[in-house]
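S1.2 Input.
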Amino acid sequence: MTQAPPPGPPTGPSSAPLAPPTPPTSGVSRLVDDFRPLVSVGVGLLATAVVLSTAYSRADGDLDWSNYAVGLLATLGLLGIAAVALVTARAADPMTDLVAWPGAFGAGSVGLMIAVAMDGGEATAYVGGLAVVALSLVGLLLTGRGPFVVTAVLGLYVTYAKVLDDVISVPDDASEEVGAISIALGLALFAVIVTVAGWVRADTRVLAGAVSGALTVVGFAGLTGVLVVAQALAPLMSMRFDEDMMPSEPPRFDGYDDDTWVILGLSLLLMVGWAVCAALTGHVVYRILVVAIAVSVTPLATAVLSVEHPSWWGLAVGAVGGALLVLATVRTVGTSRRRSLDVN
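S1.3 Output.
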């Protein structure tokens, strides 16, 4: 006759709590992870040497070869490390940090060294910018890493800005609104071109749009800020004195109104475009761009337009924003309830 086991908690191998399995770790992978901070520090210091060389190589007008040589050596060091790591350490560095970080900063350093050597000549932006783009594209094709996307977009931005300056040349006596509108259109077009071009590859789809979008947001905010300053100084330039030699208040200057409305319209179109990109990619960076351009450009635009009742502007944009949030909340709650019913 078999005796039943005494009451109490079960014992034996099956009673032990199941611990989550520990993922196997590779010694080489762990070693690379440990050395990644060293890569960032080393790249940062070499890049600092390049920046110092760029700042001081022509401080007195003539080329200081001692400072310039430091920049050249640092640039060669960055590119050399990237090349050696690509050939010899690819298996030990599957994330290609030893290639991507030194290589991308090395590509940007090449552009700076070219700019110093050419001393601000007419072709400096073309040669330096396109050199950065070419080196970055090579690195991107070899590794598919994000740092090369960033430097490629920055090099393209420098070249693109020079093209606009050469093609859309505004005479000194031209109206300011023509120049501001052209700059705004150029910035928006740059964001569209780079985002569309980056959409071709899955590994550049987000980062290309993010970098070009950030440059566009900064450009729009800076351009609107310049109009704010110009708007504030315009009455001083047109001040008149009456018969008692007392200054009379000039009428409101409206020469920048058209520029401002164009900037606002383009900002709205970019917000819609970035919202679509956010829906297609699901990435947060496009949503950040939507918020950034709205909160940076709109208040500056109201200052340029000399809005008498900014509360109406706040009420209008707040009402639209609140309605969109309510709509999103209603749809989310409805979706959640439908899923709960399906489960039950």
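S1.4 Remarks. The chain is about 75% helix and 0% strand.
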